[in-house]
Design brief:
The complex is a heterodimer of chains A (99) and B (564). Chain A is mainly α. Chain A contains three helices and one strand; from the N terminus they run αααβ. At the A-B interface, α2, α3 and β1 of A face α11, α15, α16, α19 and β3 of B.
């Protein structure tokens, strides 16, 4: 165990995390510039736009997360929400400290 | 015998497993799916086995390309599942798992609605034990809710089948359509098991509460039997396009915020079913091929993802994203296998999801369903976001969790099963010809051209970029210890609360009515006591005294009459 503690793993080094992020950015740049070089045959006119899939993928995910965050505000509950007893509506027992 | 009834291998296996133990039980469990698959291999398309019972024409076995495809798929899934659960010494789960798989096989070879109904209910009854086997209070209540929904679906199917047959259509299970008598009932029965929106909550409720191995079986069979049934009974039903599009889109929002990682996968299961339902709704040969091919690949990659999460649960006893992280340090094999599943569900080229999902998307665009196509693209980006990145990221990377010190790779059989799944994901993705040859139609579709590959890679890479940016910018919602309300809130919380509130409101009325009743009885008693009590008007003379008096009067009267 003690030997384990000293061992550093791949992503313990922040430089490796940065490398992954930069690698991803590089891949994205290459893929979008391939749109200029390669001809994609299209079935729908919107597909022909430069970088359609790239922009759509990015926008879709940002929209997804932003909407999900708003949704969470309404829907989030305590972890034990469904295990808790039902709220008592009987006025006589409303004073019950358990409620 | 195997070729006359393909489900027999698994069902007989389940019966033998119930009475055997140790290595013999293991051997039977491994042999049953293999023998069953051998039986499917020997089946000839066009074979029909019929018999008459009580005047009903039953077809327990009807073989065509569609049923053979699902026959192979279910035996494959059963075999991988069995390998995955070999380390478990729980007879109940072993029997339930094999019987469950056998019911699924029986259902896809059923040629009439009555046989289908029998296996439909068997699916429900056998699978619930995989939830109950967790043996916790939560799994018990969740399993009961699951059972009610599943059996309810069977009741609808039976009612629809009786209506359909009594209108002179016979019991044969072929194209039904919504216009047929009883068609809607059958449609909704299929829809419950297929996880239609608003009817989906049994899935997201029960699957995450099942045992680590149970969920692997659960994710394979019930919903895919429903997809098979929809593909046979309702292909080309326009309504399915709308339903499927909603199914593909709405669960991804829940998946982004959900904390329980197996529940995230349950939502993403509905999202994948959405693609299949859209394919069935479009109903062209390409679309139907896409739907069933996607069912095939989904069983394997969703199984792989469920297995990897099951392995994490097995090792750590924890499934909440907020509590996990950093496990790649101790479970690198599981992490890599999980990422193969993640790449497959995200439809990366060379992975299995790509060769099936692209068929449905291509069919949508060919048939001019622009909105549906855009929604499916959104769902495809979203699935990469939540299942492709979120699952591996929060389980194996993110921050170091308290489990990092003690975690280790899962038992060998789990790793072997996951490796089998991963091999199939890469194999089907890289060589789709084999899967395509099993599909019902020959459409000549080939997914690997520059346009498909480039557009898909762009979509995925920029989705990953969005995740990275949102995460680094701190916008991405953190994993929180929480539950998020879904439609099941209506019957788990709102309805019980409403009933209790209503009862509480009724209580004073009830009490006053009872008080009034009691007062009435009291008043009556008091009145009786007043008139008949010790000093009452009617009790002033003693009855014996008055009788003696009247006897004396009568005697006197008779004496007077006698002398008169």
């Amino acid at each position: 165990m003690s030997a384990d503690k000293q061992k550093t793993y791949l992503f313990d080094n922040p430089r490796n995390v940065r490398r992954v992020v930069l690698g991803l950015v590089g891949v994205c740049v290459i893929l979008i510039s391939l749109d200029l070089l390669l001809h994609r045959h299209v079935s729908h006119p919107w597909e022909a736009m430069f970088g359609f899939y790239a922009v759509y993928g990015f926008a879709a995910c940002v929209l997804l997360v932003l909407l999900a965050k708003e949704m969470r505000k309404v829907l989030i509950r305590n972890e034990d929400y469904y295990d808790e007893p039902l709220k008592s509506a009987d006025p006589s027992s409303r004073e019950d400290p358990r409620a | 015998m195997l070729e006359s009834w393909p489900a027999i291998a698994l069902l007989l296996g389940a019966a033998l497993v119930a009475v055997s133990r140790g290595r013999v039980r293991m051997l039977i469990m491994l042999a049953a799916p293999l023998l069953g698959a051998w039986g499917v291999y020997q089946l000839e398309p066009g074979t029909i086995i019929e018999f008459q019972m009580m005047g009903l024409q039953l077809t327990p076995v009807r073989v065509d390309k569609l049923s053979i495809l699902f026959g192979y798929l279910f035996h494959l899934a059963a075999f991988i599942g069995v390998v995955y659960s070999l380390h478990i010494k729980d007879r109940m789960q072993d029997v339930a798992a094999l019987a469950y798989a056998g019911s699924a096989v029986g259902a896809v070879f059923a040629g009439d609605l009555l046989t289908l109904f029998v296996f439909w209910e068997l699916l429900a009854v056998t699978s619930v034990f995989l939830v109950l086997a967790r043996r916790s209070k939560r799994s018990l209540s969740s399993g009961m809710r699951y059972l009610v929904m599943q059996v309810g679906s069977g009741v609808l199917l039976l009612a629809g089948a009786i209506w359909y047959a009594s209108a002179g259509n016979g019991l044969t299970f072929d194209f039904i359509g919504l216009d047929a008598p009883g068609g809607w009932l059958i449609f909704i029965a299929f829809g419950i098991k297929a996880g239609f929106p608003l009817l989906h909550t049994w899935l997201t409720d029960a699957y995450p509460e099942a045992t680590p191995t149970g969920t692997v079986f659960l994710s394979a069979f019930t919903t895919k039997v429903a997809i098979y049934s929809l593909a046979r009974g309702f292909p080309g039903t326009d309504l399915l396009i709308v339903i499927g599009t909603v199914m593909a889109c709405f669960p991804i929002f829940f998946a982004v915020i959900e904390n329980d990682l197996r529940r995230v996968l349950a939502y993403s299961l509905i999202n994948q079913l959405g693609f299949m339902v859209v394919g069935i709704g479009i109903g062209t040969q390409l679309a139907l091929n896409g739907a069933v091919a996607h069912a095939f690949t989904d069983v394997i990659f969703k199984g792989l993802l469920m297995m990897s999460m099951g392995a994490v649960l097995h090792v750590t006893g924890e499934m909440r994203g907020s509590e996990l992280g950093g496990l790649y340090k101790k479970m690198p094999g599981t992490a890599i296998l999980c990422m193969v599943g993640a790449a497959s569900i995200s439809a990366f080229p060379l992975f299995s999801g790509f060769v099936s999902k692209s068929m449905v998307v291509a069919a949508a665009i060919h048939e001019g369903h622009t909105v549906v196509w855009l929604a499916l693209l959104f769902a495809a980006a979203g699935v990469f976001h939540h299942a492709g990145i979120k699952i591996p990221f929060f389980a194996f990377f993110a921050h170091d969790s308290r489990f990092v010190d003690t975690a280790h790779e899962p038992p060998v059989n789990m790793l072997v099963a996951m490796s089998l799944g991963a091999l199939l994901c890469v194999g089907i993705g890289s060589f789709p010809g084999l899967l395509y040859s099993l599909l019902p139609y020959d459409t000549g579709f080939w997914p690997y051209d520059v346009s498909h590959v480039l557009s898909q890679l762009q979509l995925l890479a920029f989705s990953a970029l969005a995740f990275t940016w949102l995460k680094l910018a701190g916008i991405y919602p953190p994993e929180l210890k929480s539950v998020h309300l879904d439609v099941d809130w209506v019957y788990r919380r709102w309805a019980p609360q409403a009933i209790q509130t209503a009862l509480a409101r009724l209580a004073p009325i009830d009490r006053s009515l009872r008080d009034q009743g009691r007062a009435l009885v009291d008043a009556t008693l008091r009145m009786l006591a007043r008139h008949h009590g010790s000093y009452g008007v009617l009790a002033r003379s003693w009855p014996t005294g008055s009788m003696v008096m009247w006897v004396a009067v009568m005697l006197g009267l008779s004496l007077a009459l006698y002398y008169a």
